[in-house]
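Its record is quoted verbatim for completeness.
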Amino acid sequence: MIGPSPPGRDFPWWLVAVSLLGAAAYAAILADPGYRQVLDTLSRGIGITVFVTVVSFATAALIGLGLALASLSPRAWARQAARGYIEIIRGIPILVLLLYVAFVIGPALVAGWNWLTGQVGLEPIRTRDFPLLWRAIMALSIAYSAFIAEVFRAGLQSVDTGQIEAAEALGLNRWNRFRHIVFPQAFRMILPPLGNDFVAMVKDSSLVSVVGVLDITQLGKVTAAGNFRYFETYNVVALVYLTMTITLSLLLRRLELRLRAGRR
């Protein structure tokens, strides 16, 4: 039989070790002119990485919530359409979807827009007027919406149906039942997996480098190709991503603990 955990067993010693190693790594980087130059170059891509991650995740969350609600709809056509979308998108690798959106769907949207505007005499636009940055954001939003939809669906289904029936008996309409009863309880359930998806989005945002978006990874590739210092460059790339993901994971963990404490 497993007994209670000894006092101090759950202290995050791993975090202390990682923090010390990270501090030593950054100190070594700042002390070396070559490393410092690489870090300065890569820092210009942090804003792009954060922008791509936040916009893509917010859009994916909105689409995912809509898909989750559709998959739980009493209407069969809505459930079938949502399930078909989720299964198809989940079955396509994110990199393949990114390339498909960037070089197939993007030009198709431009062609469709030109056809519509041509009917009213407006000037056509060129494919390059649809930035690759926004095509990449579209692709990541589509890819993650299918996974987030399943997170939302599971969270919504975890709410006790008795509470929903009680709210209905009190005269609350469907929107108020969702806003006051269902979603607040479901949110506590979906926060951990939703946080994991957000951290995963930070890492998968590096895929936008394949279409030339100047994020951290792309700037690392360009820097390494220019100075041939692959070891130093990709050490810094890995360290920057690791700093972002661990910091974000700790913040999400803290938020989760606060929500648990507030529920008691």
